[in-house]
UniProtKB/TrEMBL annotation:
Residue ranges of the TM segments: 20-44, 56-79
Name under which the protein is recorded: Uncharacterized protein
Keywords: Membrane, Transmembrane, Transmembrane helix
Organism of provenance: Planococcus lenghuensis
Domain of life according to the entry: Bacteria
Amino acid sequence: MEQQTKTAAGSEEVVLLRDWVVALILMAIPVVGFIMILVWSFSAGTNVNLRNFARASLIVVSIVLFLYVILFVLIGMAASSYTY
């Protein structure tokens, strides 16, 4: 049985399971993962499915970093107002 790599005539190729596994492993490496998310998000040659996944990951990372910054600012303000 042949593996189908097209969803419909003229549409984007399906991303294989091994490609998703490689993408997730690369994303788990701290600096390399962030660089690969940027490359996949803004590269025209990237598969549409992988590009959308990278963009969603970039949005989630941005939201989490924003929340961390707010949390550290609040903790810093609370710690600086506390005196003995």
